User: What shape does this take?
Amino acid sequence: MIFFEHRYRQRLAQALRNQRILITGASSGIGREFALQVARAGANAILVARNRDELDRLAAECERLGGRARVRVADLSDVIECRRLAATVLREDGAVDVLVNNAGRSIRRPIMECKPDDFEDLMAVNYFGPLALTLGLIPAMLERSRGHVIQISTIGVQTGAPNFAAYVAAKAAAEHFARALRLELGNRGIDVTTIQMPLVRTPMLAPTRIYSAFPALDVERAARKIGWAVVKRPARLAPLWSSVLAVLHAVAPGLLQWFFDRLHDPFHEWMGRRHAHMESRRDAQTDAGESKGPKDAK
Ligand SMILES: NC(=O)c1ccc[n+]([C@@H]2O[C@H](COP(=O)([O-])OP(=O)(O)OC[C@H]3O[C@@H](n4cnc5c(N)ncnc54)[C@H](OP(=O)(O)O)[C@@H]3O)[C@@H](O)[C@H]2O)c1
Assistant: This one.
């Protein structure tokens, strides 16, 4: 385990030597953990999100771990602000070598209950904002004939995701832009990677309590996927099982629908029971802890 950790850190350090990496959504979850991994590799990062306090705390932690970190506060759902951010970074920090479009937001809501704003809000933060930032930073990459754009997406784009229509549609737009970018600029030194993340245990899952019962990646392993993407620069990273479902959808969409119709609800009911069981075990442990407390105090 220590060997793999060491090798990862070494490879990431090599890949990021004398490079500037910009990470959006660095104040929480996957982006925050990846920023810490980048700092342990001794690299130079620009950390972007809205929450300045969190970013300042993270930057101090990054410096303590041996990295260098610069904080840039921006609302990435605002295209004008994204253009301004790109211009400020180029002017004051210099060209970005690796851009990680990680910031994002999801809404879990059935289509018939969605508010019109849901679709626009999620397009703004998951597609139009990152698009404006990428377009702002790409010219400087092209001038130097090198650069890497990493787009954080979701396996929902591969498998389809009931109740996440607004989110998955916005991520699909970002993915298709990333794909076109790679095809157009790949021969001019620009690499583009799309990472289709499975469920990851981060604050993003908190509003849906049942997700605590779902199998999910821990944040450290999710962040490492980004690290390996920085090192190896693949076109796409995704779990094998969701890629198999994507192939199934391409060759036999009816079959995938058949599975969804029969398995989606029973799976959620099973996870619901698992969640209830986990909650009751937690309550029992809390009660046991409380009843032990006064005795211990004697
Ligand atoms: N967790 C999962 O299961 C999962 C699965 C597949 C894909 N993903 C993707 O992974 C990425 C990271 O998600 P996470 O799970 O780490 O979520 P998270 O813990 O909720 O973090 C989201 C990050 O995005 C930033 N952000 C949100 N809205 C923003 C805005 N308008 N302007 C600037 N920054 C904004 C947040 O910072 P501020 O609030 O400080 O602005 C925060 O740093 C997202 O793109 C998400 O779609 C997550």
